Amino acid sequence: MQKIKWYSFGGTKVRGYGGTRIDSSLKIGRANYFRMWVIGLSLIICQLAFSPARAQQSQCGIENTAFQGGEFLTYDLYFNWKFIWVKVGSATMSTVKSKYNGQEAFRTSLITRGNEKLDGVFVMRDTLLSYCNATDLSPLYHRKGALEGKRYYVDELWYSYPNQNCHIKKHAIKASGEHRWDEVTYKDCVYDMMSIFLRARNFDASTMKEGDNIPMPITDASSLKNSWLKYRGKEHFKIEGTGEKFRCLVFSFIEREDGKNHELIRFYVTDDQNHIPVRLDMFLSFGSAKAFLKGYKGVRSAMTSKHK
Q1: CA distance 253 to 186
Q2: Radius of gyration over alpha carbons of the chain, in Å?
Q3: Which of 8, 18, 51, 82 sits 20 to 30 Å CA-CA off 148?
Q4: What digits encode the pLDDT tens for the residues 13-50?
Q5: What is the rounded distance in angstroms from the CA atom of residue 217 to the CA atom of residue 43?
Q6: Termini Cα distance of the chain
Q7: Kindly report the CA angle at 265 between 261 and 271, in degrees rounded to 5?
Q8: Three-state SS string across the chain, please?
Q9: Cα–Cα distance between 168 and 22 in angstroms, integer?
Q10: What is the pTM of this model?
């Protein structure tokens, strides 16, 4: 089992596992809050991301006990519009067995689509794709293609692990059409919004205590973010429409910007082996948004958190 370490970041005491740490010198850009739809659905269970792991292909690997190929999750997206909640879109996430450069892999995709009501205000068409090693879930490749408003851009990441380091080749296509390339090597493990989701689901949350803060280094083709998660305990949640009730773990996703900590998302995941996200509350600069689990199939383990 890896040793627990504590770090001080912006006046907040943060717990980390192994070599994972927060670098206070990194700059945090202003959040595009519409992207919270995507960030929320792919990071909602990142509280699990820094669990102790067995020796694997790389230090960034972990044994998969939470999901299998053929899992399919669907969500409804809502926005608080003049004191009423209006459905503004949907999201789907699927994981299948595949291959990447000849090796066995999990291929995971997340697609979010705004409906006509949202299109009248802000067009949202986001597609995220990720390949992770099927043996230990270490990330191999990530791509995000996004149309947000009138802005279309692409982020791509290629991972390799020389000398037990994490090397990432980055490619960004800006809204202007400009291509930018970069390569960075980190001594610690770094993840993207999709690969951290899969790794996250294999953590034993029973070791966590209410109030714990866990660092979460996440990168895209432009920057590495200083962010962490706060564990808020357990609650019961009923899904509207289906009437299903779940015992959930509750977490907040927090970023530090302009000298202040900002809670961007509060999310609820099933308190069982699957760790499926069932609800997200997103705190936007112009209002509030929510995402609710609509359906699921192909889950690996029994949904023991479900109750009458």
Answers
A1: 23
A2: 18
A3: 82
A4: 434 433 333 333 333 333 344 455 445 554 444 434 33
A5: 12
A6: 37
A7: 120
A8: CCCEEEEEECCEEEEEECCCCCCCCCCCCCCCHHHHHHHHHHHCCHHHCCCCCCCCCCCCCCCCCCCCCCEEEEEEEEEEECCEEEEEEEEEEEEEEEEECCEEEEEEEEEEEECHHHHCCCCEEEEEEEEEECCCCCEEEEEEEEEECCEEEEEEEEEECHHHCEEEEEEEECCCCCEEEEEEEECCCCECCCHHHHHHCCCCHHHCCCCCEEECCEECCCCEECEEEEEEEEEEEECCCCCCEEEEEEEEEEEEECCEEEEEEEEEEECCCCCCEEEEEEEECCEEEEEEEEEEECCCCCCCCEEC
A9: 18
A10: 0.74
pLDDT tens digit string along 90-125? 888 899 999 999 999 999 998 888 777 666 666 667
If phi > 0 it is left, if psi is from -120 to 50 it is alpha, else beta; for residue 10 that is: left
Q: Which amino acid, residue 236?
A: H
Q: Which of 153, 157, 93, 94 is nearest to 125 (CA)?
A: 153
Task: Work out the burial of residue 308: count CB atoms within 10 Å of its CB; fewer than 13 is exposed, 13-18 middle, 19 or more buried.
Answer: exposed
Please give the backbone phi and psi of residue 150, each rounded to the nearest 5 degrees, phi first.
-100, 10
**Residues present in the chain in total:** 308
Q: Are 286 and 121 a contacting pair, CB within 8 Å?
A: no
191 token code pair: 């993840």
Distance CA 199, CA 49 (A): 6
Retrieve residue 30's tokens: 């202003």
In this structure, what token pair is assigned to residue 134? 């099927």
Q: Which residue type, as a one-letter code, is found at position 3? A: K
**Tens of pLDDT along 50-97?**
333 333 345 788 888 888 999 999 998 888 766 778 888 888 889 999
Tokens 């990441």, residue located: 157
CA atoms of 71 and 110, how far apart (whole Å): 12
| Tokens coding 91 | 């999201």
